[in-house]
C-alpha cells in the first residue's frame, strides 16, 4: 500500500463504478482523484510520480477495451475538467452558412495530404486548403474544451452558439468525453466522410506522467525523420485564472476555458469572435497555450508540486519505424517520418500523458441530410422472395446470414462506386451502368420508422428538384455519402428477441425475412442529397431490393430513430451476454475491431461467417462496412465455447494483418487487447513503442502498454 498524495482520496465502495468501463472488466485501486483544472492535475501526477505510485487516467469510461480500468495505484478521473470555451471563427464569413462539401480522399488510396505520412480517411470540411494528413490547415472555427467535456453537451453548445457548424466525430456513446475520444482516436459512422477524431484536433495541452506539461499545436513541432523532441514547459508563477463567465480576448485568452453557465450563452460572446486571431495565435516556444497573449504567460506552478531536475529539458524520442496499416486504425502509437507531435498523443490510450485541454476544429454543417436503411431478404441478391422466413427464425440461420451479408456487400460496393459515393474506396465499378442509374421517382409506398409516405411529387421524399449530379461539376457543391453502416441478420434477431429497445427505437419494426440491413446517409447542399439518395435507391432496386421495406428520413427525428435502431443492437447483445453470465460467470463476448483494406471485405466475411458456425459459437455482426470495418461479436454460452471463440479471434487477427489490415480500427487495444499489438507490429515494433514510453515515463507508472 502507498501513502496517498495530497489531492487523492482513499477508494471506497462509493467509487466502485470507477473500477470498470464498458468492457465489463473490473479492476482495483488504492485511491482516486478528481482534479478540476490543469494545475491540480499536474500537482497530483507530480506527487504520485515522485512516490512511485501507478496512475490510470479516466474520462467517461465508455471504452470497451479496458483502457480506463485500474490494476493498482490510483485513478485520476478527468470528468470535472469539463469546461467548454466559445466558438472562435477563423475569419470573417468563414463557415457561416457554408456548404459542407469536402473532397474525399479515402484511407488506403495511397495518398499523402502532406501531414507527415498518415493515411487520411477523408478530408476535413474546414474550408479551402484543408490538410487531412494532420498538418497545418485553416479550420472554419475552433473551440477549446476540457478533457472531461461530454460529447452530447459539446454538441448542444455548438448547436446553441453556432448552429451553422458541427463536430463530426460520432462514436456510439455520446456520453464519451473529448479526452477519451482523443486517447483512442475515436470515430463512428461519419468517419466514412469526415475521418476520425485525429483529423479534427488542432492542438493539445498534455500533462506528462511526472507533472511536466506540453502545449502542442499542429505544424509547430514535427519530427525530423523519426527523431522527435518534446519540449515540456517549466512551471512558473503566472496570472490568476479568470473567473467563470469572463470573456475571451487577446489579453485574457484563458477565459476561453471558462465554464458555460447552465442554460446560458457560451462565455466570451462577441468579444471571443473579435479575438479570433489572437485565439489562433501560435504556441510560443516553451509551451504557451494557443489562446491569446495572456495564455502565452509561463505555466503556473501547482502548489506543492514536485518536479524532477531539468524539467524544462527536451525529451528526445526515437519513433518506431514500423509501417502503420493504410486502413482505419487505432492500434499502437501513431508514428511516421516527419509526423506532427500532436499525433503521438492522439490514440496513445492514456499511456504517455493526460490531456488537459483540446483545441478542436469545427466543420460547416451540411444544409441537407437524407438517410435510409435498406433491408435485404432471403432470395435474390437484394430483395426477392422471403419464403416466409422471419428475422427471428433460427432455420438455416448461418446460410441466411451469409446471403444477406454478401448481398449487402455488393450493394455497398455499388454505393461507393457512385460519383458521389467515395469511389476510391471501391475496387471498381463492377456494376457497370447500374451504378449510375437514375431514380424514376415513382416508387410505391415505402416505410420509415413511425411513418409512411408516397413518393409522388415535390412533397414526397425525393421531391424538391435537383439532380444529385452537382458533385461531378467543378465548383458546384453537391451531395456526398457520409456514412455506410451494416447490421447482420443474427444481430437483428437478437435485438428482437431481447426486446430491450424502447423509446425512439420501439417503432423501428424490422421487415419480415430481413437477412441484413445497410444504412446510408448523405450530406450536401440544398437540393442535392435527396436526388443522390434516389440514385442509391435505384441501385438497391437494380440488385433486387424492395423499397417497400426501406426506411427513409429527412429530418432530425427520423434520423434519431434510425440511430436508435443501430445503437439498440449492441445494447441487446450486451443484455444477452449479461443474461448468460448468470449461469456461466466466466464467459463474456469477444468482439473484434478489425479493418481490412479495400477489396478484401468479401474474403474477411468468408471466415467471419463460416468459422463460428463450424465451431458451434453464436455470433452477431455489425459495423462500419463503408470503411471495411466490421465488429464480429462472438457469443459463447459455455467455458468451452469461450475458448473456441478466443482461438477464432486470434487466428482472424493474424489473417487480417497479413491482408494489410488493422487489429483495432477504432477502440484501441487497452488492457484487454494489448497482446494484439505484437500481432500488428511484431515484437520489434512493440519494443520500439516501449522505448518511446520509457523516454516519457521512465518509471513506467502511467497506463498500460
Please, could you describe this protein's structure?
This protein has 705 residues and is an alpha+beta fold. Helices cover 25% and strands 15% of the residues. The protein has helices spanning 38-50, 151-161, 178-184, 191-194, 269-274, 276-279, 341-345, 397-417, 489-498, 529-542, 556-581, 601-615, 639-659, 676-696; strands at residues 9-10, 31-33, 55-58, 74-77, 88-89, 141-145, 165-166, 201-207, 213-217, 227-230, 315-318, 354-364, 368-377, 446-448, 451-453, 480-488, 514-524, 551-553, 590-591, 618-624, 629-635. The strands form five sheets. It has a seven-stranded antiparallel β-sheet with strand order 18-13-17-16-20-21-19, with helices on both faces. Strands 5, 6, 7, 8, 9 and 12 form a six-stranded antiparallel β-sheet that branches. The protein is globular, with a radius of gyration of 25 Å. Mean pLDDT is 73; it is low at 92-138, 237-305, 383-395, 423-476 and 501-507.
Summarize the structure.
With 705 residues, this protein is of the alpha+beta class.
Topology:
Layout: E1 9-10, E2 31-33, H1 38-50, E3 55-58, E4 74-77, E5 88-89, E6 141-145, H2 151-161, E7 165-166, H3 178-184, H4 191-194, E8 201-207, E9 213-217, E10 227-230, H5 269-274, H6 276-279, E11 315-318, H7 341-345, E12 354-364, E13 368-377, H8 397-417, E14 446-448, E15 451-453, E16 480-488, H9 489-498, E17 514-524, H10 529-542, E18 551-553, H11 556-581, E19 590-591, H12 601-615, E20 618-624, E21 629-635, H13 639-659, H14 676-696
Parallel strand pairs: 2-4, 3-4
Antiparallel strand pairs: 1-2, 5-6, 6-12, 7-12, 8-9, 8-12, 10-11, 13-17, 13-18, 14-15, 16-17, 16-20, 19-21, 20-21
Amino acid at each position: 500500500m502507498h501513502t496517498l498524495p495530497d489531492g487523492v482520496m482513499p477508494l471506497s465502495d462509493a467509487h466502485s463504478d470507477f473500477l470498470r468501463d464498458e468492457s465489463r472488466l473490473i479492476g482495483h485501486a488504492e485511491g482516486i482523484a478528481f482534479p478540476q483544472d490543469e494545475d491540480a492535475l499536474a500537482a497530483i501526477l507530480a506527487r504520485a510520480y515522485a512516490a512511485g505510485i501507478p496512475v490510470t487516467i479516466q474520462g467517461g469510461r465508455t471504452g470497451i477495451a479496458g483502457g480506463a480500468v485500474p490494476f493498482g495505484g490510483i485513478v485520476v478521473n478527468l470528468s470535472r475538467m469539463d469546461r467548454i470555451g466559445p466558438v472562435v471563427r477563423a475569419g470573417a464569413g468563414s463557415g457561416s452558412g457554408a456548404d459542407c462539401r469536402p473532397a474525399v480522399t479515402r484511407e488506403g488510396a495511397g495518398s499523402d495530404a502532406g501531414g507527415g505520412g498518415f493515411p487520411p480517411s477523408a478530408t476535413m470540411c474546414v474550408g479551402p486548403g484543408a490538410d487531412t494528413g494532420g498538418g497545418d490547415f485553416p479550420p472554419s472555427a475552433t473551440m477549446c474544451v476540457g478533457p472531461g467535456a461530454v460529447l452530447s453537451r459539446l454538441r448542444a453548445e455548438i448547436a446553441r452558439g453556432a448552429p451553422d457548424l458541427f463536430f463530426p466525430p460520432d462514436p456510439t456513446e455520446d456520453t464519451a468525453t473529448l479526452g477519451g475520444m482523443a486517447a483512442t482516436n475515436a470515430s463512428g459512422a461519419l468517419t466514412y466522410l469526415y475521418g476520425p477524431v485525429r483529423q479534427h484536433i488542432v492542438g493539445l495541452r498534455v500533462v506528462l506522467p511526472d507533472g511536466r506539461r506540453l502545449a502542442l499545436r499542429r505544424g509547430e513541432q514535427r519530427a525530423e525523420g523519426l527523431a522527435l523532441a518534446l519540449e515540456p514547459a517549466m512551471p512558473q508563477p503566472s496570472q490568476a485564472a479568470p473567473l467563470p463567465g469572463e470573456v475571451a480576448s487577446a489579453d485574457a485568452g484563458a477565459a476561453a476555458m471558462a465554464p458555460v453557465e447552465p442554460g446560458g450563452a457560451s462565455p466570451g460572446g462577441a468579444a471571443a469572435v473579435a479575438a479570433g486571431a489572437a485565439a489562433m495565435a501560435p504556441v510560443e516556444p516553451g509551451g504557451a497555450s494557443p489562446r491569446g497573449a495572456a495564455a502565452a504567460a509561463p505555466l503556473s506552478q501547482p502548489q506543492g508540486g514536485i518536479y524532477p531536475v531539468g524539467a524544462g529539458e527536451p525529451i528526445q524520442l526515437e519513433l518506431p519505424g514500423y509501417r502503420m496499416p493504410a486502413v482505419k486504425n487505432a492500434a499502437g502509437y501513431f508514428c511516421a517520418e516527419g509526423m506532427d507531435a500532436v499525433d503521438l498523443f492522439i490514440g496513445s490510450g492514456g499511456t504517455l500523458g493526460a490531456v488537459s485541454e483540446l483545441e478542436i476544429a469545427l466543420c460547416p454543417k451540411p444544409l441537407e441530410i437524407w438517410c435510409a436503411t435498406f433491408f435485404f431478404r432471403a432470395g435474390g441478391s437484394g430483395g426477392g422472395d422471403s419464403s416466409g422466413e422471419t428475422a427471428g427464425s433460427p432455420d438455416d440461420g448461418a446460410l441466411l446470414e451469409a446471403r444477406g451479408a454478401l448481398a449487402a456487400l455488393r450493394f455497398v460496393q455499388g454505393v461507393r462506386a457512385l460519383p458521389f459515393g467515395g469511389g476510391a474506396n471501391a475496387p471498381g465499378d463492377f456494376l457497370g451502368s447500374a451504378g449510375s442509374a437514375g431514380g424514376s421517382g415513382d416508387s410505391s409506398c415505402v416505410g420509415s420508422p413511425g411513418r409512411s409516405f408516397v413518393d409522388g411529387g415535390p412533397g414526397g421524399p425525393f421531391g424538391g428538384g435537383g439532380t444529385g449530379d452537382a458533385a461531378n461539376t467543378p465548383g458546384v457543391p453537391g451531395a456526398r455519402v457520409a456514412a455506410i453502416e451494416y447490421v447482420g441478420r443474427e444481430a437483428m434477431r437478437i435485438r428482437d428477441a431481447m426486446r430491450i429497445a424502447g423509446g425512439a427505437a420501439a417503432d423501428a419494426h424490422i421487415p419480415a425475412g430481413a437477412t441484413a440491413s445497410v444504412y446510408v446517409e448523405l450530406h450536401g447542399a440544398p437540393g442535392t442529397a435527396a436526388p443522390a439518395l434516389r440514385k442509391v435507391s435505384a441501385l438497391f432496386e437494380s440488385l433486387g431490393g424492395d423499397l417497400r421495406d426501406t426506411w427513409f428520413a429527412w429530418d432530425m427525428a427520423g434520423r434519431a430513430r434510425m440511430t436508435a435502431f443501430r445503437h439498440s443492437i449492441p445494447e441487446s447483445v450486451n443484455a444477452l451476454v449479461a443474461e448468460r453470465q448468470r449461469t456461466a460467470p466466466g464467459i463474456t463476448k469477444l468482439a473484434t475491431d478489425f479493418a481490412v483494406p479495400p477489396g478484401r471485405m468479401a474474403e474477411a466475411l468468408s471466415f467471419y461467417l463460416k468459422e463460428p458456425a463450424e465451431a458451434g459459437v453464436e455470433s452477431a455482426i455489425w459495423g462500419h462496412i463503408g470503411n471495411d470495418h466490421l465488429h464480429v461479436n462472438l457469443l459463447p454460452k459455455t467455458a468451452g465455447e469461450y475458448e473456441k471463440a478466443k482461438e477464432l479471434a486470434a487466428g482472424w487477427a493474424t489473417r487480417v494483418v497479413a491482408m494489410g489490415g488493422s487489429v483495432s480500427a477504432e477502440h484501441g487495444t487497452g488492457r484487454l487487447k494489448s497482446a494484439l499489438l505484437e500481432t500488428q507490429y511484431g515484437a520489434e515494433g512493440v519494443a520500439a513503442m516501449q522505448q518511446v514510453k520509457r523516454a516519457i515515463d521512465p518509471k513506467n507508472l502511467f497506463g498500460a502498454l
